[in-house]
Amino acid sequence: MNRCICPKFEAAIEVLAKKWTGLIIRVLMEKTCRFRDIREQIPQMSERMLAERLKELESNGILVRNVYPETPVRVEYQLTDKGRSIEPILDEIQHWAECHL
Amino acid sequence: MNRCICPKFEAAIEVLAKKWTGLIIRVLMEKTCRFRDIREQIPQMSERMLAERLKELESNGILVRNVYPETPVRVEYQLTDKGRSIEPILDEIQHWAECHL
Description:
CATH superfamily of chain A: Winged helix-like DNA-binding domain superfamily/Winged helix DNA-binding domain
Largest sheet of chain A: 2 strands, antiparallel
Strand content of chain A: 5-15%
Oligomer: homodimer
Order of helices and strands of chain A: HHHHEEHH
Radius of gyration of chain A: 15 Å
Number of domains of chain A: 1
CATH architecture of chain A: Orthogonal Bundle
Strand order of the largest sheet of chain A: 1-2
Number of helices of chain A: 6
Distance between the termini of chain A: 35 Å
Low-confidence stretches of chain A: none
CATH class of chain A: Mainly Alpha
Shape of chain A: globular
Mean pLDDT of chain A: 95
Structural class of chain A: mainly alpha
């Protein structure tokens, strides 16, 4: 049986198609955000889940966590170029949604 | 706070970004399949999970379940036009994967 699923495609689905990930990236595509900014945009997601997804996305190189040594410390989440390059995928999802939902 | 996430986009993510869904649609994009054909392509997914995802995708109008009254009965899963129109999303994921993974 030859496998028709490309391993790279499968790896991308593993990274991108996790619950909440698409919405988090969609929010960060608009602007760099603090933790609570993201939670405000996706209120039905728990703090623990958001923290977990942000760590995963950081380890996958999709976003960076900027820490500013102010008082109190300011922490912001920003998409990397790799993260920003996901935009065409989100645009296609938006287009499909407008046509079919 | 104005919400930057489009409700239609959110609904599409809810349908498409479930674990295994992207891979199942990718397999059916190649050809109409029987249950075991799909399982052969995605061996790490359980039968129960595949059955659950196929029901969801059928109820969302993304695929149809064709039943042929032969002996034994033959059941095949086929993408609808709505299902096939997901292809540009998969193509963008493939492109991103080839560039970034």
